[in-house]
Every structure is written in C-alpha cells, then in structure tokens.
What does this fold into?
Amino acid sequence: MSKRPQKKILIVEDEPKILEGIVDALSFKGFLVVTAQRGDEAISKALIEKPDLIILDIMIPKLSGLDVCENLRESGVKAPIIFLTAKGSEEDRIVGLERGGDDYITKPFSIKELVARVQAHLRRREIDALEAISSESGKHVFEIKGLTVDFQSRSCWANGEKIHLSEKEFRILKVLFENIGQVVDRETLLKQVWGYRTLDLETRTVDVTIGKLRQKIEIDIHEPKIIKTKRGKGYIIEGTI
It folds into this structure.
C-alpha cells in the first residue's frame, strides 16, 4: 500500500521561538516543513518549493507579510495563506484578507488551534479539487439583484462590472445560493467554506470575509441588498432563483 504524500507547509516567521514551536508541532503531525524568516526569502521559497499551505507572519523583515501575500497571488500562487497577526490589529486582519489571505490567527495563539486550521484548509482544498474533477452537471450560474455568478468558470459580475473574487468568497456565495431563502449560520460557513471540523475556535474570519465580499458586490454596504445579516443567527440571500 503506497504512502500518502506529505503535505508541504511554508512557515514565514522571524521570531525563533515561535518558529521552532510551529515547526515542531507540524513536523510531529507528519507535515513536511519549509521555513523563511524574511519577506524576500518567503517569496523565493514559495515559488521554488510550491507549498500546499503558507503560514505567514505580517511583521517580518525586508517585505511585510501583506506585501508577500499580494506578490504571491499576483504570481499565481493559490496555496491557502494563514496570517499570524498581533492581538488587536483589526486593520491588519482586514487588509490581509483583502490582499489575498485566507485566514488569520492572533498572537499569542494555541499551537493546537493553528494545527487545526492548517488541517481544515488542506482538507477544504482537497474537497475543492475533487469537486472540480467531478464537474457537476447541476446549475452553476446564479443571478440575483444585479449579481451574476458562474461557479464553473469562476466568474462574477456585479451591476454590469466584472469583479475578482477570492476562492473563499466564491465558496461563501455558493453555500448561500445553495441555501437561498434560508439563514446560514457562521458555524456552517466555517465548516463548509473553511473546512473546520471543530468549532472550539475564536475567529471573526467569516464576518471579515463577508464584509470584504460586500464591498465588491453591494451598491451600499451599509444597506446590503444581496447578503443580509440576521443578527445572532447568520447570513442569508433572500428570494428565489
């Protein structure tokens, strides 16, 4: 029986003790680990090593993690990127997702939580690959209130203008369209979009990502017409397709 190939993780962190702790934890879980401590080194390692996932500290020498992320996305790197951010730096978290990040975790963090997020993102990526191969025969183009989304070609138009969406944004819309007229709670989105199995995690990733998505598809983000919030319950696209 052939062994399953190891998943490769690139860790970009300039604090030696934090770097060592993450390396030890992921190596123990069977991951192949590559490290970098500077922004320029991170870009080089990512392009050469082609990791399955990147853990990226925002505050690193030479180039910030935000610049590294944007550079990698422009270079066609699609591996999930989890940012490590300072506690309370809400703006960094939002900008990180806007510039191509998939998730964030604030320092100080639990190694157990970080490993859980790594596993969730890799699991979600495998599911996406299988779904793409199976090329579903069901409906894949949805239109509502000036928004048109083609999930097969990964294309989106809002109010007549073509816009770029991240993979996470496409997945959120897919889950909401599949449940149109029904409230989808944050826990469901974390499971179906981010691949989390356990919800014993502190994260505002869903809210931040939907906020970013609204900026792209809504005419007025203060009075959204497409993705509405049901306070204390979750999110909904109202109507029928």
Q: What stands out?
A: The chain has two domains: 8-131, 137-237. The first strand starts at residue 8 and ends at 12. The mean pLDDT is 86.
